[in-house]
Amino acid sequence: MRGKFITFEGGEGSGKSTHAEALAKRLTARGIRVVRTREPGGSPGAEIVRHILLSGMAKPLGAEAETILFAAARADHVHATIAPALAAGQWVICDRFIDSTRVYQGALGKVDIKLIRGLERVAVGDMMPDLTVLLDVPADIGMARAKLRRGVEAADRFEAEAFEFHEAVRKAFLILAEREPDRFVVVDGRPALDVVTERTVQAVERRLSTALLALGALTGGEDR
Length: 224
Ligand code: Z5A
Hints:
By secondary structure, the protein is of the alpha/beta class. It is built from 9 helices and 5 strands; from the N terminus they run E-H-E-H-H-E-H-H-E-H-H-E-H-H.
């Protein structure tokens, strides 16, 4: 049986990496084989493109060129990492995926949605997420958390954008979630870490209960 594909989306510092990791641990404790990955990156080729994108080297080429680079990285990531894992029955938990392109390059970068959808068809095909967890936090909280975590390191190409940019990112993600309620679940990322983790796990249990039951992994909390 094909594994399940779960993506985490949200603005900077919304807790995607933290809660993706926590979910992976919970699922692993229930005997599910989990692959944790991220975008841009997640395969050797895509990690090279990640460096080009996040260093800002591609910014002068324009938003369309950046979109094409994100898609090239995604195609390699899907081909080398995601598709083989799902085919082997593993569950894939990915930090950012197509919705980040739709928001950062589409809604914010004003790249034509037709180009974005066309690139999705090429890069992703039918490897669409079964579930997308949107961690929703106001931009000021997310930016403060990311700054704290970053310490003395310089902000990357996207982190360096202004508050208004990050608030617009938040709104654009919420619009996507409203449009596709069957794929998205929105989790309030403001409460304490363990509360958000618990709510995320519960949301995954609700949405993917059939698959978890089939694996004998809907246990009702002995791993909590
Ligand atoms: N991008 C794009 O434009 N187009 C695309 O198609 C794709 C990406 C795929 C990737 O940057 C950038 O690429 C991204 C969009 C663009 N830029 N932005 N902005 P990245 O991968 O380097 O960074 P990121 O995705 O933005 O992740 P992040 O900043 O690392 O945030 P996060 O993963 O959501 O947060 P975190 O690391 O889990 O948490 C941040 C800190 O907050 C950490 O110290 C946690 O312990 C703390 N935290 C988390 N949750 C809580 C709660 N609930 N309470 C208290 N503290 C918390």
